[in-house]
Amino acid sequence: MTWDLLLAGGRTADGSPIDVAISKGVIAAVGPHLPRDASHISDITSRLITPGLVDLHTHVGPGYWGIDPDATAWHSGVTTWVDAGSAGAYTIDGLRRVAAGSSVRIPALLNISAVGLAGRTGESRDLGNCDVPLAVDTLQQHRDLLRGIKVRIDRDTVGDNGVEPLRRGLAAAETAGVPVMVHIGTTPPSLDEVLDLLRPGDIVTHCASGIAAPLGPAVHAAVERGVLLDIGHGSGAFAFDVLERQLAAGLRPHTISTDLHARSLYGPVFDLPTTMAKLLAAGLTLSEVVTATTEAPARALGLPGGRLVPGAPADLAVFTVHEEEFDVTDAHRQVRRSPLRLVNDLSYVGGRPLIPRLPAPVPPWVPLTDVQRAALARRERDIRALLATPLVGVEGLAEQFPRESEPRESRNS
Ligand SMILES: [Zn+2]
Questions:
Q1: Ligand 1 center to residue 404 CA distance, Å?
Q2: Which residue stretches of 145-248 are H helix?
Q3: Is 240 helix (H, G, I), strand (E, B) or coil?
Q4: Which end of the chain, C or N, has fewer beta carbons within 10 A?
Q5: Rounded average pLDDT per 10-residue block, the chain, 413 residues
Q6: What distances in angstroms separate CA 175 from CA 17, 137, 202, 333, one per listed residue?
Q7: 234 alpha carbon to ligand 1 midpoint, in Å?
Q8: Which parts of 295-336 fold into alpha helices (H)?
Q9: Rounded to an integer, what distance in angstroms lies between the CA atom of residue 72 and that of residue 99?
């Protein structure tokens, strides 16, 4: 039998022992004590192993918000980056090029506005951009890439158009048989009007937003119908006090995503493990948090990964779980304590390890504080110092081309 790789001695989020064997890019076997029969064996004793994390709300497409996923994926365990509406019908080819050039998997949600998120906001103020037949055609032409529709509903995005962009997104999604992810924010249109339109399987992102604060009966009714709640942290859409009130009222997020983009990458989001720590701080268990970043988002979009089962793609993440408390911050500078810190040590996409990549420069339109600028400059200096130092001294070198032609006597003298 002999597998390509065996990750041996790990544990699952609920603490059970687990080994995972990989062959030809897929999970070949999973069990508590697999035979040590592989070309390579990686000892991950007592570390957490999960399916590669699936971040249901990110921005990696070209434009105002997009970031390079590879520079963050290798140290965060996120192997699937769902691009949530960076591209519309006019700009989908740019996103396709990003997806083809990345090490991670990039399924996407098509923005109902054909201009997508080339700019900061306002993409659905001109209803001429929200063309239902064009969106349906685009979904059908890019079935391999596109998993649903994204609609942003807030005052700045839609102007005077109310929920009409959402109605159009739902019409396109209904025809194509895919879900809609709706972003909520500043009103009008009212949150209840948005929630009442959603169908089972549709997703509300920014569900614990301090700006929209979804707490009324319409949220409960939506969840009872099968509408999914997604965190979508972002730079302005996650508030601890709102989440805590939701949890107290029996509303739990189904999926935990970052909304990682050019304005949340340098804080307050940073990465998905940091966002997971915030949900741990709010009282969710490690098992709940891992399910909400693997199986649940994969199921929401019908993606193949998200579970440690034979036959699944070998997308995996290995973490050291440090049992130490640390402070975490939401989008409104409210601070809580996380009981655990998750540090990603290894990640695989289709059985291939993700390797270190350096971050891209900050785009000139992204506002940063002086503290953020100083931290970025310090990180750049540290990276430069690390990479500019010769790797080894003479003690680490072999004589690769010995001077055999030299007379023996003179060598020994
Ligand atoms: Zn977003």
A1: 64
A2: 155-158, 164-176, 191-197, 217-225, 240-248
A3: helix
A4: C
A5: 94 97 98 96 97 98 96 98 98 98 98 97 98 98 98 97 98 98 96 98 98 95 98 97 98 98 97 98 98 98 96 98 97 98 98 96 96 97 95 95 70 46
A6: 45, 10, 14, 42
A7: 7
A8: 295-301
A9: 15
Q: Cβ(358)–Cβ(383) under 8 Å?
A: yes
How many whole angstroms from 381 Cα to the centroid of ligand 1? 31
What spacing in Å lies between the alpha carbon of 84 and ligand 1's midpoint? 6
Task: Please answer whether residues 308 and 18 qualify as being in contact, where contact means their C-beta atoms are separated by less than 8 angstroms.
Answer: yes
Interaxial angle between packed helices 240-248 and 272-281, expressed in degrees from 0 to 180 and rounded to the nearest 10: 50
Q: Is this model's pTM higher than 0.90 or not?
A: yes
Structure token pair of residue 104: 């991670």
**Parallel, antiparallel or unpaired: strands 228-230 and 38-43:** unpaired
Domains of the chain: 54-284 (3.20.20.140)
- CA 57 to ligand 1 center in whole angstroms: 6
Cα distance between residue 155 and residue 158, in whole Å: 6
CA of 129 to the centre of ligand 1 (A): 19
